[in-house]
Design goal:
disordered N terminus; two-stranded antiparallel ribbon; 583 residues
Length: 583
């Protein structure tokens, strides 16, 4: 195992693309090829797990850790803190069940981008553009840029509220945060950046004393694990649930983690360790979300603040007034920390995607002079978001929730592209989705669509009763089951036809004998070992050498329908936020 102190074998500024064997892969930026250089250690480019002791394997895991943990903790950003606090302040612990249901969504979505990043060696935006063309690429990345820019505004809102609690005015706190965020990435060292992020992540430890000091009720928290709709399933509650979904499973996470895996130079042989990294991050993000919800629910119990959420800054002040200055300060520190981590991760997700889209260098291994567009894009994004954060306070408070709701509405689209890429054998080879993974992913996508449809219906028809919405959900589930069954049947028919064509090409033999032609004397264990070895070394070929997949009529119709519906849903979320602003 190799250990470095200078950030590893960063390529020189004159090298624009991988050379030698790496030139035949999809990897675009030469800085994305080399030793893995992490905050907690390094691994040589050609190192393997073979012959390693348990202690060495643990050290390798520590070196790999980063992308999964950072993307999950970044998920609990300023918008997340505000959304979870709103859920706790207005509904107690009654919505904890939404977090429980989102755990498989988090893992399934992020595990797919883990495979895409490690195997393809390019970012999410690059794959969408190359495999689906400019139209769909602009559709996907355009949505990302808009929502991400607004999300970073909410991060600066969080910074100003948190530091405002300690008496620092917005005119100082926001510019100071913008300079700090740029300094975090501008050093030309991936290791230094990741260590800085790990330091911020360590601050999350304050969530434990915060949750303890508000005297939480284990019974009430456990009761919240049972699905319920406090006050009835109306548009206000649905908007909050969509916001919880959007802040917990945001589209930017797909782009960030895939690009960060590429930037860290994680290859297929380390996918197992990156999955562990992801699970660690999920545990941390769930613990933080429940702690924030509990702080607002129990810390403000019995006060006039219950049911009257305004913003995260007001929650910190109310906790200070009711539970003491220490509790308020801990909440403000958690809000500040979440805002800085979130702004950094969302900003990088955007500029990573920008580099993918424009074919420019986009790596934290490069210095500013070596990748000027990458760093200029990041700086411009921070500057614009910081300026917008000086808008009137009542607008900014509603914008925070609205951005999370928009992310939730757009998530089905992002997940559809993700599933399509993970079924693209030319890109993932032996790492493509299994039937089971596709079924789970399909359930997730359809559930997100149904939730978005419910929000749309409740906004259009505010008089809809809880019973009517529940009937709608039931009908949607039935449609999903029928559609899923039809897709499985179609898949089996297509596979059978392929076998029959192969049988004819081989001389009109019995199709049932096709599998026997591949029979070998290898044992099951030997077959598995060969398959694993193939998977560990398989990389996506250069993208320009691959034939682009063709959308059939049914798939194209479905994609266009989804796009049209999402446009309507986004407009309706905007209408709902406007109504809230104008009273």
């Amino acid at each position: 195992m190799a250990f470095f102190s200078n950030g590893g074998d960063r390529r020189t500024a004159t090298t624009a693309a991988p050379t030698g064997a790496a030139a035949t892969s999809a990897t675009m930026d030469s800085a994305h090829v080399g030793d893995i250089v992490g905050a907690l250690g390094s691994i040589g480019q050609h190192d393997t797990l073979e012959g390693r002791t348990r202690k060495q394997r643990v050290r390798m895991l520590l070196a790999i850790m980063g992308p999964g943990l950072i993307v999950m903790v970044g998920d609990n950003d300023a918008g997340g803190v505000a959304t979870y606090a709103q859920a706790g302040q207005n509904y107690g612990m009654a919505l904890v069940w939404t977090l429980l249901l989102l755990i498989p969504v988090l893992y399934v979505n992020q595990e797919m981008v883990v495979r895409l990043g490690a195997v393809a060696g390019v970012g999410h935006a690059r794959l969408i553009f190359d495999r689906f063309g400019r139209f769909w690429g602009a559709f996907s990345v355009g949505d990302l840029f808009i929502v991400n820019a607004l999300t970073i505004v909410t991060e600066f809102i969080g910074v100003s509220m948190a530091l405002g609690y300690f008496g620092l005015p917005k005119g100082i706190s926001v510019p100071l945060a913008a300079v700090l965020l740029f300094a975090m990435v501008a050093g030309g060292s991936f290791r230094r950046w990741e260590r800085f992020l790990f330091g911020l992540i360590a601050v999350n430890i304050v969530m434990f004393p915060l949750a303890f000091m508000v005297h939480p009720s284990v019974r009430d928290t456990a009761h919240g694990l049972l699905p319920s709709f406090p006050g009835g399933l109306n548009s206000t509650l649905l908007l909050l649930i969509v916001a919880i979904v959007g802040t917990t499973v945001a589209p930017w996470q797909l782009f960030f983690q895939q690009s960060n895996i590429v930037d860290k130079r994680i290859t297929p042989r380390w996918i197992r360790y990156e999955r562990i990294d992801l699970w660690i991050g999920i545990v941390v993000v769930m613990a933080g979300a429940i702690a924030i919800m509990a702080a607002a629910a129990f810390g403000l119990a019995g006060t006039d603040a219950i049911g009257n959420f305004t913003d995260a800054g007001a929650v910190a002040q109310s906790l200070s007034d009711h539970m003491g200055k220490t509790v308020g300060a801990l909440f403000a520190i958690l809000l500040l920390d979440a805002s800085l981590i979130g702004a950094n991760a969302v900003g990088l997700a955007t500029t990573y995607a920008l580099g993918d889209t424009m074919g420019k260098r986009h790596s934290l291994h490069w210095k500013i002079t070596e990748a000027p567009m990458f760093y200029a894009g990041y700086a411009a994004l921070l500057a614009i978001a910081a300026a917008v954060s000086f808008s009137p306070d009542h607008v900014l408070g509603l914008l925070t929730q609205g951005v999370q709701a928009l992310a939730g509405v757009l998530l089905p689209s992002a997940t559809v592209f993700l599933v399509l890429l993970c079924n693209d054998r030319a890109v993932l080879g032996p790492w493509v989705n299994t039937v089971r993974q596709n079924i789970v992913a399909g359930v997730i996508v359809w559930s997100l669509v149904l939730l978005s449809l419910a929000l749309t219906a409740a906004t259009f028809f505010p008089g809809l009763t809880t019973g009517a919405l529940e009937i709608g959900f039931g009908a949607g589930v039935a449609v999903g089951l029928l559609g899923g069954a039809g897709m499985l049947i179609s898949r089996r028919i297509a596979k059978r036809r392929e076998i029959e064509r192969t049988a004819q090409e081989l001389g009109n033999i019995d199709p049932d004998q096709i599998e026997e032609l591949d029979a070998t004397p290898l044992t099951r264990a030997e077959r598995k070992a060969i398959a694993e070895q193939d998977r560990d070394t398989w990389r996506t070929p250069a993208l320009h050498t691959l034939e682009r997949p063709v959308f059939g009529t049914a798939r194209m119709t479905g994609m266009l329908a989804l796009r049209g519906y999402l446009l309507v849903a986004v407009i309706l979320v905007g209408v709902k936020i406007f109504q809230a602003i104008t009273g």
